[in-house]
């Protein structure tokens, strides 16, 4: 349904909705921007969009565009937008507007053509249905990008993270590693302290970085988040697997 991405890139997914995928994706895009890359960002579909004079707008796409200093318009960065905060398959059905896969493919092609690196953010968790036959995992598989899993730090995250990683591996999607987001550095519980290495041990997956529990001020990234993202060589990960010349 979607063509493989021919440039370096990363696909950002999460163990669930509201784990902070957009902040992590935006911070990674900012990392590349600060190093002189032309950064393309894309959120193929979004729900819970806000209605403005120009139509439905994804606030996640706005944040990604700002972090990347992207040239593409918002309706290209997020080509499929729905008002109700539901899984895309359900939101599309209720809106009477089937998901337009060719529109997503065209948008990705347009973004790739003017970018050195691509950051794609999924919607919800990896098994969220996009239509009657496909899930977010299919998008990750089609695009062929190394995938970053964003997870919560607290109780339950071992199970959620390992299920997500295993689901990706079953579909032969390359897993770049896990980012623990919203970590309470000052008041971490025993579960939050021990979950970090447990995810690595039982998931046999790299723990890339731990992002503190800081809230962006509007479209600005807090310094703690920037510092956490700066601990990782994202270029190396983006170039690790994709089929393009080095």
Describe the 3D structure:
- This protein has 246 residues and is of the alpha/beta class.
- It has one domain: P-loop containing nucleotide triphosphate hydrolases (Rossmann fold).
- It has ten helices and ten strands.
- β4 and β5 form a beta hairpin.
- It is globular, with a radius of gyration of 17 Å.
What's this, in brief?
The chain has 246 residues and is an alpha/beta fold. Helix content is 39%, strand content 20%. Helix 1 packs parallel to helix 2 and helix 7 packs parallel to helix 8.
Spell the H/E element sequence.
Answer: EHEEEEHHEHHEHEHEHEHH
Q: Kindly state the percentage of residues in helix.
A: 25-40%
- Strand neighbour order, sheet with most strands: 2-7-1-8-9-10
- Average predicted local confidence, pLDDT: 95
What is the CATH topology? Rossmann fold
Strand content: 15-25%
Could you say which overall geometry the principal axes of the C-alpha atoms support? globular
Mind telling me which CATH architecture this is? 3-Layer(aba) Sandwich
Distance linking N and C termini: 26 Å
Radius of gyration: 17 Å
Task: Spell out the blueprint of helices and strands.
Elements: E1 9-14, H1 21-34, E2 39-42, E3 45-46, E4 50-52, E5 55-57, H2 59-68, H3 74-77, E6 80-81, H4 88-95, H5 101-113, E7 117-125, H6 136-143, E8 147-151, H7 157-170, E9 175-183, H8 190-203, E10 207-212, H9 223-229, H10 234-238
Parallel strand pairs: 1-7, 1-8, 2-7, 3-6, 8-9, 9-10
Antiparallel strand pairs: 4-5
List keywords for this structure.
39% helix, six-stranded parallel beta sheet, single chain, 10 helices, disordered C terminus, Rossmann fold, alpha/beta, 246 residues, 10 strands
């Amino acid at each position: 349904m979607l063509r493989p991405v021919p440039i370096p890139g990363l696909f950002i997914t999460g163990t669930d909705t509201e784990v902070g995928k957009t902040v992590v994706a935006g911070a990674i895009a900012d990392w590349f921007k600060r190093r002189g890359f032309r950064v393309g960002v894309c959120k193929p579909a979004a729900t819970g969009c806000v209605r403005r004079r120009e139509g439905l707008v994804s606030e996640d796409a706005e944040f990604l565009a700002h972090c990347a200093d992207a040239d593409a318009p918002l309706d290209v960065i997020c080509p499929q937008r729905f008002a109700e905060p539901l899984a895309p398959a359900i939101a599309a059905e209720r809106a009477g507007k089937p998901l337009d896969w060719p529109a997503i493919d065209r948008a990705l092609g347009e973004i790739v053509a003017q970018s050195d690196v691509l950051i794609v953010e999924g919607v919800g968790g990896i098994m969220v249905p996009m239509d009657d036959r496909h899930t977010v995992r299919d998008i990750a598989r089609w695009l062929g990008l190394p995938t970053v899993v964003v997870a919560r730090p607290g109780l339950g995250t071992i199970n959620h993270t390992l299920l997500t990683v295993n689901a990706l591996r079953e579909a032969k999607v390359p897993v770049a590693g896990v980012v623990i987001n919203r970590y309470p550095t000052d008041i971490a519980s025993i579960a939050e302290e021990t979950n970090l290495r447990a995810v690595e041990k039982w998931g046999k997956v790299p723990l890339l970085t731990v992002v503190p529990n800081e809230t962006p001020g509007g479209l600005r990234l807090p310094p703690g988040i920037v510092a956490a993202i700066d601990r990782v060589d994202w270029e190396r990960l983006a170039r690790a697997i994709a089929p393009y010349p080095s």
